[in-house]
Amino acid sequence: SAESGHQLFEFYSEEMYRNMRRLAELECDLFKAVENKEWEVYYQPKVSVDEHRIVGVEALIRWNRNGEAVSPDLFIPLAEKLGLIGHIGQAVMDKAFGFLRLSSMKDRVPIVLSVNLSPYQLMEPDFTQSVIRLTEKHGVNPRRIMFEITESAYMHHFDKAQNAIRQLKELGYTFSLDDFGVGYSSFQYLSRLDFTELKLDKSFVQSLAHNRKNRVIIRSIIGLAKQLGIAIVVEGVETKEQWKTLKTLNCHSYQGYYFSKPLSAEEWINLLAGKFIL
Ligand code: C2E
Ligand code: CA
Ligand code: CA
Ligand code: CA
């Protein structure tokens, strides 16, 4: 009837209103978080089984919004939309480079620090300068800094990104292609930009047990990376079974909860520095 149609409309519009309001509040809090630098950075090891050690560490942003953690998968895209990602990226680099400095004084073997980059950051004209400034501020070696980037529609301005990547590579920084295999143009990225490392997306590992084709795919991507002279890290390894299967597929470097969750800087320095032997 006309009446129930009316009710339906009211139901949806109220629902929509609530969602919009929630989004606006989140956006508002995100601005405040930028002003107050409410970020924390956690660190997850990349391990090499051959070398029996940690070979790298990935910096992952954490935002505690009034006592509740918000997933970066939620607020990073929002920050990109609101033009806040540059500020956030700077704050993450500042912390992470400081962490690199501290941990390399404690570690026996120096590790490589990976920082996730939004493609928007790479397009900013002063990005390279700010990386150099922060590197000098913390007195760290560019050869110990890697940037992880993912495929993105925005990166169709390949030449801008290519310029920034080339400049930074000349100074010793390296680049990793993150979430490899889930986008539409992973191979185009691989051929056009200059990567030192490739990270196989965790979705491959998650479907390993019930998708036999995945094993063939993983094995051939590893072979491809080897032929291109690019290191490969498999992410999202959660169980011993997954790790065992991956070993048979020629994987050597891993990241995932099975080895370690992301840790706070304190946890890392206290528990892990120089002691992590597989
Ligand atoms: P990512 O770069 O692909 O990072 C891997 C994500 O998988 C992280 O989630 C990590 O905590 C999680 N992870 C690690 N091991 C496992 C595992 O064994 N199983 C599963 N299921 N997950 C695992 P997180 O920290 O929530 O970050 C999500 C995404 O947010 C990142 O995906 C990255 O794209 C983005 N991100 C995080 N920190 C930053 C940052 O500082 N800057 C930018 N631009 N993006 C960031
Ligand atoms: Ca990453
Ligand atoms: Ca990833
Ligand atoms: Ca991801």
Written description of the protein model:
This is Bifunctional diguanylate cyclase/phosphodiesterase. It is built from 11 helices and 9 strands. It has an 8-stranded mixed beta barrel, surrounded by 5 helices. One calcium ion binds next to strand 6.
Helix content: 40-55%
The topology string of helices and strands comes to HEEEHHEHHEHEHEHHEHEH
Helical segment count: 11
What coarse outline follows from CA principal-axis ratios? globular
What's the alpha carbon Rg, rounded to whole Å?
A: 21 Å
The computed structural class is alpha/beta
Could you give the distance between the termini? Answer: 68 Å
Number of strands: 9
Quick synopsis:
This is Bifunctional diguanylate cyclase/phosphodiesterase. Residues 23-276 form the EAL domain. The protein is an alpha/beta fold and 278 residues long.
Notable traits:
binds ligand C2E, single chain, globular, eight-stranded mixed beta barrel
